[in-house]
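Researcher: Next entry: TBC1 domain family member 12 (Phalacrocorax carbo).
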Amino acid sequence: RNFFTKRTKELKPAVQSAPGWKLFGKVPPRENFPKDSKIIQQEYEARTGRMYKPPPPSARRKNIEFEPLSTTALILEDRPANLPAKSVEEALRHRQEYDEMVAEAKKREIKEAHKRKKIMRERFKQEENIASAMVIWVNEILPNWEGMRATRRVRDLWWQGLPPSVRGKVWSLAVGNELNITPELYEIFLSRAKERWKSFSETSSENDIEDAGASVADREASLELIKLDISRTFPSLYIFQKGGPYHDLLHSVLGAYTCYRPDVGYVQGMSFIAAVLILNLEEADAFIAFANLLNKPCQLAFFRVDHSMMLKYFAAFEVFFEENLPKLFLHFKSYSLTPDIYLIDWIFTLYSKSLPLDLACRVWDVFCRDGEEFLFRTGLGILRLYEDILLQMDFIHIAQFLTKLPEDITSEKLFSCIAAIQMQNSNKKWAQVFASLMKDNKEGDKNHSPALKS
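Model: Predicted structure:
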């Protein structure tokens, strides 16, 4: 408080007549009190010799039903008294322009209102459909699962998307539990993972952990690598980040799986699959579904990075790509753009990273019904949806576009494109095409084997 006391004492009170300062010269000082509006008006009248008269009430606008929230209406105002008045023609023209602007604003407002009503109607309709479907699933289908799951009625209902309240249960039943994992087994592997975490934190440095995680000999060491990916899992939701309600749960499921399958270990992309299951299932059930899902041939081939199997899947995909989208197929070929550039990320995360979460869950619904075929059918549906755009792009822009798909993609548009994809080539379905590729590969291996050559 005493920093500037000396300077303050030396200051003299300002004199009213002392000049103020302004850039490029002196100006009189500002008065310390604001003038009253009446005084300003009196000074103006004395200076101009004119008296301000407000316009009569009849001249003002009355009963305007729609008033745009802008300065649009100023066009109708009379000019200030010190300016020439409007001519009749100008006033009529301004009235016409104003009416046109109001009409356009009304049209926009009505259009927006209709759009909002349409969205609300669709939302209510969707909620009603979900509610009625939930009753059917709970009361009719789930109690008679084995007998009804393959019926046409259930398959059609399944295609429309599962109600969120039964989604986890249906996924668990559809994926199955061929590995016969129990909640008790999950607890065993979870405790093992916790022991490994503890030993890592006590004995290993961060660099040692990363080296161990990359080692094939001990994939369980990749436990620490899980931490790096959990924070990147659905970052916009904030529920899987450190301190979030599902952070520890996701860490536990992934850690337990890494100890359960040290031959597979942790691979990037697993965290998204586990996170989707955690959002729809209890902890132990999520682990059981996760382990069985990753044990499917397609997922096992990708997560174990079995290059020969992955190439077979890409080759089968290209057969149906050429069949359904020949122009886009040739366009990709001209740039040597192969499926691995965009398919790997889609398959690794089962589209949960590439699509909006609600849409990804609907893809999961039908994937659980149809198996691996639907994953590749969905990929073709995405390409069909954006075919016109992709045909105008070069290699770099195609790769960038397919790596980060538009966020405004809707389930109606995507599923209509998926429905238009025919998974049949020369009367062969996906499984038959894939089997023939596997057979050709085996025969090729035999023809090139040393035993046959000798």
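Model: Note for the record: Strands lie at 20-22, 25-27, 424-425, 428-429.
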